[in-house]
C-alpha cells in the first residue's frame, strides 16, 4: 500500500507541474492576444474600406485598364497564400485552417496547377505532405506582426501575378470573430474586384457588403486611370495581406489561450481525482495497519 501512495503522490506532483506550465502559457497567450486584437480592431475599418474601394473600382471601370483587375479567360495556375502558426498547442487552429485549404485544393480540381506561399511552419509542412510546391515560406511573422515584415510578401504576389505567372491568387487565413470563435476563410485576392470576398471579412454580413461596395458608381481619375490604379491597387493588396496576417495572429493567440485554459482546468480536475484516490489508498493503508496491530495484540494475549 505505501508503494501505491508514493506513485500517486508522484503523479499528483507531475500534474501540478504541468498545470503551472499550461497556466503560464495561458497568461502569455492572453497578453499576446490583447495586443493582436487591438491591432486587428484598429486596422479592420481601414482594411474593409480598402476592399470596398477595390470592389467599387472593379465595378465602375474597365478591368482591362490594369492587370490587377483583369479576369483571366481560363484559370490554369493558382497561387495560395496560406497563413498558419509556427507552433502547436493552439487547439484546432491549425487543423481547421489546413482542412479548409485541402478542401479548396479539391474544389479547384486536378486540372489546376497550385503553388503555395506559406506563412507559418505548420502550413508549410502540411502543403509538402500534400505534394504541393511551396515557393516561399515565412516564419515568426504572426508574433508581433509589423507591416514591414508583410510588405515583401504582398509585393512578391503582385509581381508574380502581374507577370502572368498565375491566373489567380487566393489567400487562406483564420478570421478573428471573438476570443472563443475563429473562422477559417479563403478569399480571392487577385484579380481584384469580386464583391463576394468582402462579405467574409470580420464577420460582415453579405447584404451589408453588397450595399457598401455598390454605393459608388463613378470615379474620376487624375491625371489618368492607369496612373492612379498603378499607385493605389498595389497598396491595397499589401493592406489586405497585412490585415489577413493580423486576423490570423489574433486567432492563433486566442485559440492557444483557450486551449491552455482548458488544459489547466483538466489538470485541476485530474489533481482532485488523484487526491481523492490518494486519500482512499492512505485510509485503506491505515485501516490495514490497525487491523494488523489488533490481530497481533490478540495473538499475544491468546
From TrEMBL:
GO biological process, one term: proton motive force-driven plasma membrane ATP synthesis
Keyword set includes Cell membrane: yes
Major subcellular site: membrane
Membrane topology: Peripheral membrane protein
Record keyword DNA-binding present: no
Highest taxon in the source lineage: Bacteria
Pfam families from the UniProt entry: ATP-synt (PF00231)
UniProt KW keywords: ATP synthesis, Cell membrane, CF(1), Hydrogen ion transport, Ion transport, Membrane, Transport
Subcellular location: Cell membrane; Membrane
One Gene Ontology cellular component annotation held by this UniProt entry: plasma membrane
SUPFAM superfamilies: ATP synthase (F1-ATPase), gamma subunit
Xref: Gene3D superfamilies: 3.40.1380.10, ATP synthase, gamma subunit, helix hairpin domain (1.10.287.80)
Subunit structure: F-type ATPases have 2 components, CF(1) - the catalytic core - and CF(0) - the membrane proton channel. CF(1) has five subunits: alpha(3), beta(3), gamma(1), delta(1), epsilon(1). CF(0) has three main subunits: a, b and c.
HAMAP family, alphabetized: ATP_synth_gamma_bact
Protein name in the entry: ATP synthase gamma chain
Gene from which this protein is expressed: atpG
Amino acid at each position: 500500500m505505501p508503494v501505491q501512495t508514493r506513485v500517486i503522490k508522484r503523479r499528483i506532483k507531475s500534474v501540478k507541474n504541468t498545470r503551472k506550465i499550461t497556466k503560464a502559457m495561458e497568461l502569455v497567450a492572453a497578453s499576446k492576444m490583447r495586443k493582436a486584437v487591438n491591432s486587428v480592431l484598429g486596422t479592420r475599418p481601414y482594411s474593409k474600406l480598402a476592399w470596398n474601394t477595390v470592389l467599387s473600382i472593379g465595378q465602375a471601370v474597365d478591368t482591362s485598364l490594369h492587370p490587377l483587375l483583369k479576369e483571366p479567360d481560363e484559370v490554369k495556375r493558382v497561387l495560395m497564400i496560406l497563413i498558419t502558426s509556427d507552433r502547436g498547442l493552439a487547439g484546432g487552429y491549425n487543423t481547421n485552417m489546413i482542412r479548409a485549404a485541402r478542401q479548396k485544393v479539391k474544389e479547384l480540381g486536378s486540372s489546376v496547377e497550385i503553388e503555395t506561399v506559406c506563412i507559418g511552419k505548420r502550413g508549410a509542412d502540411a502543403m509538402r505532405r500534400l505534394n504541393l510546391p511551396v515557393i516561399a515560406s515565412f516564419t515568426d511573422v504572426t508574433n508581433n506582426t509589423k507591416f514591414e515584415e508583410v510588405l515583401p510578401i504582398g509585393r512578391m504576389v503582385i509581381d508574380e501575378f502581374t507577370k502572368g505567372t498565375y491566373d489567380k491568387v487566393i489567400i487562406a487565413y483564420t478570421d478573428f470573430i471573438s476570443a472563443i470563435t475563429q473562422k477559417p476563410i479563403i478569399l480571392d485576392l487577385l484579380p481584384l474586384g469580386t464583391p463576394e470576398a468582402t462579405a467574409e471579412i470580420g464577420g460582415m454580413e453579405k447584404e451589408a457588403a453588397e450595399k457598401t461596395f455598390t454605393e459608388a458608381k463613378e470615379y474620376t481619375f487624375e491625371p489618368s486611370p492607369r496612373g492612379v490604379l498603378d499607385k493605389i491597387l498595389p497598396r491595397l493588396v499589401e493592406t489586405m495581406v497585412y490585415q489577413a496576417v493580423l486576423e490570423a495572429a489574433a486567432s492563433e493567440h486566442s485559440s492557444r489561450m483557450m486551449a491552455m485554459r482548458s488544459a489547466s482546468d483538466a489538470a485541476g480536475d485530474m489533481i482532485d481525482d488523484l487526491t481523492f484516490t490518494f486519500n482512499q489508498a492512505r485510509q485503506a493503508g491505515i485501516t490495514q495497519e490497525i487491523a494488523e496491530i489488533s490481530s497481533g495484540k490478540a495473538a499475544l494475549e491468546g
